[in-house]
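cron nightly-structures :: item 1 of 1
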Amino acid sequence: MTPYPPHTDDHAFVLFEVLRAPQTLAPLAAMAEHADPDLLRQVVDEAAKFVGEVISPLNRAGDETGARWHAGAVTMPAGFRDAYQAFWQAGWPSLACAVEDGGQGLPTVLEAVLYEMLSGANHGWTMAPGLLHGAYECIKHHGSPDLKARYLEKIATGEWLATMCLTEPQAGSDLGLVRTKAVPLPDGRFALNGTKIFISGGEHDLSDNIVHLVLARLPDAPPGPKGLSLFLVPKFYDGDGAAPPQAKPTDLGGSDVHAVTSVGASTRRSAVHCERIEEKMGLHGSPTCVMRFDDAAGWIVGEPGKGLNAMFVMMNAARLHVGLQGIGLLDAAWQKADAYAQERRQMRAPGSTSKTGQADAIERHPAMRRILDAQRAWIDAGRVIAYRTALELDVQKHHPDADRRAAAARWCSLVTPVLKLAWTEQAFHGGSACLQVLGGHGYVREWGIEQHVRDARVAMIYEGTNEIQAIDLLLRKVLPDGAAAQQALLHGLMAELDHSPQAERTRQALERFGNFVQNRLLPQTQAEQAPADRAHWLADDYLRALALLLMAWAWSRIAATPGADAARWRGAENGFWRWVWPEFEMRMAMLEAGLACD
């Protein structure tokens, strides 16, 4: 199988025809000069070229060779460092970062398109720059002027990579159990001690420095999440960041840094140690590290005890990227399945006009067509929803009208967890369905599709498990305000529909769902006699139902777009209404059943 090629016509159709991105960006003063369709299309085309020619060909070697650990150092697969150096020097990490920070100030949606392509092409490699924008936003909004001066531009440009160090052996989803300690030092820094696990890119040779953002506790911090603060600990302090071949401890009080003898005298290495990397089901090209902080000196980011506030800026950005990973991985699996189905000939398809004894391409067999059309429906709708979310992020920041900014913030708050859960699940289960198209060949490594299934599985776990996403959406974002934000979202979706049969079907479903939440779900979850855990039982079905409604809205929008009557779009649209949409009735029935249980 050939490496994954991004198909820019599909991206462009969603971006320019369905969503009319230039019209959304034009009213934003910060984006007006970038709203030119020719400019946006040029960036998309160049991104596809870079991804297809530089990143995609490294995917198989990255999976088979993997990252290698030896004596605390991690060596990345051949070609990975050169590709990353070319990536940041070409300006790709800085697309959506502010110009004053070394960025290009381009729309966030271009970054979304880029990272979807990267994920489909080489998920393991893409893990390295995947946290950059979140780290940039975190430091920009919560870092001190000194930290910004030292690190913001390096992160914005991607010259230095970043990590997010949250998880510990006893603290996964419950971050209130974090034990890593931070003790004040005389120079205003803090000495961090503790062990973090599952740290993507905690050690590697891709960039000349790594900036760790670490949750830890101050000595007088209260227990639980309110006692957590955020700290920045670099791999190297000052200097040019070049990695030394040898380092030795100094006598600087507890050896919180190491002197470097092979580079400039001002460059010192921190006491952050990679103890090992995990052997994983997938993502072999991304080192998942166990990191030990041994009196590692760092700076506080934001206010003491407000570490989660600062970290959530990074996590929210990461969750949108994880949703895009799901779309990209599913697209990569679908492309392989579709190509195989066109070439593989087996038996005569029902209703075939082929000559007696002549086999048909399996794409003509209903069983295979059903798989291909259903997964294509998920990919196309996911792009509409994800790209719309990226556009709303810029509207939220830059629109002159306060009400429009509030509506954009509401969209991002409610839709981001839906993208993260529904499309990462579909990347795994839909990718497995695509593997089925190849039969036994799909199970064999040389065809490449089994890697997508293995790589996709972790996206349902990291950046907040999918169960956490559903609980967070229903219990923290929908129920507390009496579903007012949800109702505003649903009414906004209805207002964008035309009067086609598909749109009318979607409108009725949106109204039905809104009435159910207000008249059945809210009273049953908020009544004094209601079981305290009822909403927790219902959260997953609630989110899945909302995901299907968003897909119905997306497909109604696609169907109303000139050019959507082409066979390319019509097959996927039929696949949605026939093979995906019926799940909505099942989820509504499960919600009703959940309300009936004591």
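cron nightly-structures :: done
The CA atoms of residues 160 and 209 lie 5 Å apart.
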